[in-house]
Write the structure tokens for this entry.
Amino acid sequence: MATSATICELSQHVGQTVTLRGWLYNSRSSGKLMFLVVRDGTGLCQCVLEKTDATAGLFETARRLGQESSLAVTGTVRADPRSPGGHELAVSDVVIVQNAAGYPITPKAHGVEFLMQRRHLWFRSQRQWAILRVRHTVVEGIRQYFNEHGFILIDTPIFAPAAGEGAQTLFAVDYFGEPVYLAQTGQLYVEAAMMAHRKVYCFGPTFRAEKSKTRRHLTEFWMVEPEIAYADIDDVIALAEDFVEFVVRKCLRERRTELEMLGRDLAKLEAVRKPFYRLTYSQAAEILHSDRVRQMLIADLEQAKARVAELTKLIADKEAERTAAGVKEWKADKLAQEIMDARDELADQEEAVHNIPHHIELAANFEWGSDLGGSDETIIARLHEKPVFVTHYPRACKAFYMKRNADDPRIVNNLDLLAPEGYGEIIGGSQREDDLNVLLERLKEDGLKEADYEWYLDLRRYGTVPHGGFGLGVERTVAWICGLKHIRETIPYARMMGRIYP
Ligand code: 4AD
Ligand code: MG
């Protein structure tokens, strides 16, 4: 009797006969050998079936199996460094659970739109499998960090009666005839709980009606928001730094294989050690105006133009090769995938050629008082090989609850953390305005109704203390750690403008 095993445990079964239960990832045969690559959720394993008199029938059956057929494969485990997980199975039996025909995601080339429409199946592909496992570990790391540091979990409501961040990105829902909103943040609610428990956090989905399609914005995303009492901006920065370092190091320890599968440059993640860099907003503005940035962007533009020319030629060459007479089907498929990848990169490079002059303009004309835009953040982040905090923004471009700076009332004690390699803001936070009168002024300034925030104002009436916290977006963090260009693959079911299926 063969024992049942999973692929990730095969190292404990070398030389034994085991049964793997999973799905057929792909297969090929060459003469008397058939290679069944089986996945079982824990990994991939190449299973080798040799055609003999005894297995001839089995060989025929296995040959007819469609991609993603569910099956049980029995065989002897051999260590083999060339096999995907380091082990191979010498097959003695195959039992079919279901022979699946016509699985739509084939080894042929597919565009992202096609794959996003089939997200429920795309999960099974290796890259997607790796990404969601990294996400799992990021989420686990978040919970572990706060739980191990004495924070109390406070679940905050999703139905919110008023705006928590900007009023422009609210999703209104009908609440028994009353208009209410899907939560943009749990912050105001954790501030109240912080007064009871000192160190608290909330962690859940948040919603923003982002009306633009970007690589960094979802309409539904997960955010963790710690809040601490008796804290100033430096305490909040120290917490954010320690926390982000912890999460990155956990991924490096526990998801090295997955990150390698994704082609992530691990040295870049290894460099994420405390202390991170710190800049004030005013220093960031100076950098944007510098000649160094201008030269960097001009060089980017030249490089993008050269790459466009290179890719255009590459695509034409591969296209000619693919459509040439007598080309083998597998070769044509491989070329089609390469062409599709090259077209994706070409689209990115063309976009860069189009956008960089605009980014040069934006950086050069950046005015003190406006918020840093996505391209500005990218520029600042690229100049630092570790995450960088940008602090002390002008009050006018930030939320009402941020603490007015004691020395300069034009600025607030806030922090944004920009991830390196141009990934942009992953954390936004601040010390909070703890003075009732200043807070009342700010509500007025922002045109917010005092009545909506009565309960929040109570926190400044009864035992107010200096305090602060931040929010970290899970998906942007996963995109950065995995090295992905787009946020859409970092969440199981992405919700963005124009995407609500499946
Ligand atoms: O900077 P934000 O808007 O800060 C807050 O919501 C504060 N109330 C947090 C706090 O102080 N407790 O958002 C925080 C983070 C961003 O840095 C980003 O990582 C993520 O949430 N985020 C988004 N992620 C994906 N899609 C979007 N549309 C996002 N908007 C914000
Ligand atoms: Mg922000």
Q: What stands out?
A: Residues 165, 185, 187, 208, 210, 217-218, 221, 223, 225, 425-429, 469-473, 475-476 surround 4AD (ligand 1) (CB under 6 Å). The chain has three domains: 3-98, 123-289+366-490, 293-363. The radius of gyration is 27 Å.
